[in-house]
Amino acid sequence: MNKNIGSADRVIRILAAVVVAVLLLTGTISGTLGLVLGIVGAVLLVTAFVSVCPLYMLLGISTKKAPQAK
Hints:
Distance between the termini: 25 Å
Shape: elongated
Low-confidence stretches: none
Strand content: under 5%
Mean pLDDT: 92
Largest sheet: none
Structural class: mainly alpha
Number of strands: 0
Order of helices and strands: HHH
């Protein structure tokens, strides 16, 4: 798979996942909303670490910068 997530996108995804984790651990969100946001946070974290987003692939989007020619 070709990587399609740039560094800024990775940082934003990791920060969003951390925020969701903190909200879950402090009990600020719970129940169905907590479950849904927990799953979304986990997906964001996984996609950030593997640098591949399946949704971006479907939509033909890439936030990764193209390598510069020498």
